[in-house]
Amino acid sequence: MTVRVVLADDHPMYRFGLRAVLDASPEVDVVGEAANGAELLAQVARCSPDVVLTDLSMPTLSGTAAIDELTRRRPGLGILVLTMHEDDASLLGALRAGARGYLLKGADRDEIVRAVLAVAGGDALYGGAVARRVADALTGTATRTPAFPELTGREREVLELLAAGLPTGQIARRLGLSDKTVRNHVSAVLTKLQVPDRAAAVSRAREAGMGTPGHGR
């Protein structure tokens, strides 16, 4: 019996390559694809897969938000994350939402297929580096990685204030910057987080716990 899988990633060529990897396994049947979180919810409703293999950074609805919704709709669904994000906020956010596996892009074919089969069987599976991070988090020995390590300190400050609901003018006054400089930082944040607009960046930041009283202080 094959494991029915729905893939979700907003990069068509990556999705194409991932499907080719899974199609080469006689134990896996790719039954659907999605380019964003909203499409993922629709594909799962249509295809009834055993496993969802999803990225986190996607337009319209993030992977983490989609996982949270899928966990409510189908508690037994196996959800495996395959992403470039290795920061603690992304990892722990996905696990809290209900993911049972977490691999980093760069995992080889055998590792991906093994993870899909493990999650389908009800097990949890993490890549080697990710497993150590999970263990450190549970034992309290983790060295905390700031959310979105790809951002500079100033970009993270701007994102923190965006997530708190401040408009450009207030962020500029709070940080002693011009409006134009704040807009430039916002543009850099959108590029680095691979999101289409401020609303999507704010959603990612709030999922990571930013914008709440006391966060980042």
Description of the structure:
The protein is α/β, with parallel strands linked by helices. Helix content is 52%, strand content 13%. It contains ten helices and six strands; from the N terminus they run βαβαβαβαβαβααααα. The protein has helices spanning 12-23, 37-47, 63-73, 88-97, 109-120, 128-139, 153-163, 168-175, 179-193, 198-207; strands at residues 3-8, 28-34, 51-54, 78-83, 101-104, 125-126. The chain has a six-stranded parallel β-sheet, sandwiched between helices. Helix 2 packs parallel to helix 3 and helix 7 crosses helix 9. It is elongated and about 60 Å long.
What topology, given as strand order, has the largest sheet? 2-1-3-4-5-6
On the 0 to 100 scale, the average pLDDT is 87
Please count the beta strands (DSSP E, at least 2 residues each): 6
Helix proportion of residues, in percent? 40-55%
Q: Biggest sheet, open or closed, and with what strands and sense?
A: 6 strands, parallel
What assembly state would you assign to the polypeptide chains in this entry? Answer: single chain
List the secondary-structure elements in sequence, H or E: EHEHEHEHEHEHHHHH
How are the SSEs placed, and which strands pair?
Layout: E1 3-8, H1 12-23, E2 28-34, H2 37-47, E3 51-54, H3 63-73, E4 78-83, H4 88-97, E5 101-104, H5 109-120, E6 125-126, H6 128-139, H7 153-163, H8 168-175, H9 179-193, H10 198-207
Parallel strand pairs: 1-2, 1-3, 3-4, 4-5, 5-6
Helix pairs in contact: 2-3, 3-4, 7-9, 7-10, 8-9, 9-10
Q: What attributes does this structure have?
A:
six-stranded parallel sheet; alpha/beta; 6 strands; elongated; 217 residues; 10 helices; 52% helix
